[in-house]
Amino acid sequence: MISYARQNPEDPSDATAPPMDDHIAPAPRVSVQAFCETVETAAAVQSAGEDRRLGKAHLKIQMGGMAAAIEAYRTAPTPNVIILETEGRNDILAGLDQLATVCDSGTRVIVIGKLNDVTLYRELVRRGVSDYVIAPVGAIDVVRSVCGLFSAPEAKAVGRIIAIVGAKGGVGASTVAHNVAWAIARDLALDSVVADLDLAFGTAGLDYNQDPPQGIADAVFSPDRVDTAFIDRLLSKCTDHLSLLAAPASLERVYDFGADAFDSIFDTLRATMPCIVLDVPHQWSGWTRRALVAADDILIVAAPDLANLRNTKNMFDLLRASRPNDRMPLYCLNQVGVPKRPEINASEFAKAIESQPIATLPFDPQMFGSAANNGQMIAEISANHRTTEMFLQIAQRLTGRGETKKPRGSFLSPLIEKLRAK
Prior knowledge:
Elements: E1 31-36, H1 39-49, E2 58-63, H2 65-72, E3 81-85, H3 90-100, E4 108-113, H4 118-126, E5 131-134, H5 139-148, E6 160-166, H6 173-186, E7 192-196, H7 204-207, H8 216-220, H9 228-234, E8 236-237, E9 242-245, H10 263-272, E10 275-280, H11 286-294, E11 297-302, H12 306-322, E12 330-336, H13 346-353, E13 360-362, H14 365-374, H15 378-381, H16 386-399, H17 413-421
Parallel strand pairs: 1-2, 1-3, 3-4, 4-5, 6-10, 6-11, 7-9, 7-10, 11-12, 12-13
Antiparallel strand pairs: 8-9
């Protein structure tokens, strides 16, 4: 057993569930066995096992607590992680001493107990307990504790995946994804990568004015070669903080993938890049569903019409059910205000979805058309345009980052700018 403790029993807030936007990195493929004493804890552990972040872990739950664990491991090897529930103080320490005699080296132990005692906590750390969680626990407490064993505390911000998808084809989801990623990289100074998952018709290369010889297709068709060095070679640098994993936009191949085709790519990107923006095409398959469910944050882009409303509602319902311990999906309305087109207004849209849009982007064919044809972002064409500010607000909401403070100029700044222009 190793000595690694995260929670502090002196702080009672540690026993509460984390905020819904708290970033928890997924656990690797590990075996987890829980020995519970109460039905409530067993139910919480069972619910945690269904969370996306423990999707790769193999979880087994038994009743009987410490005594059952000691008996089980007399004749069987111990897993990567053991979760033990116990109600007393003396039986915790005595039980751990017995468990140590049958526990394999490298096994990590999480103890769930009712006592909030610093002295007990120190004794647990001394015996090599990895984490101590105060009961009662919820599913997110278990997820956070198990996942926390495999991620360094200083690396919490690394590997946040943001998936952006259209509720319907042609609503401008890719344009939104690329401009939001630009804002994350430029205005929030967060190293980011855009992964264009529309291999046949992706437009990220055009929007960023890039034509890299390699891209995401080289990785997805060579899963055995995927590692950090290989992915780095495939990335095309757009700015100091923004890189692109481009789609080939070629019809020479048929892009039929299994549900887990992109898993190794996403895992590798998580390990090296603080922010990954997935430009997810509007299609429904095993791998697109998996990409959305496994993302840390989701943005659905919709136009203000009935088909988009229905699709957004269906996606919201599915993602809420599939991600009970995650923050709710977000959505924005795009192409609002097309002349002579009947539209569903934002308040009616929000009433049906039971959630407000985080932004309402106006229909501006001149601005967006010029940007697309020039291979530029909206911020490059007009830094002070209201749509530029909206993209920044979306970026802040998706990343959980506050407003950026721009340096203030002196009262002579406007005059100096005019003189420079002359």
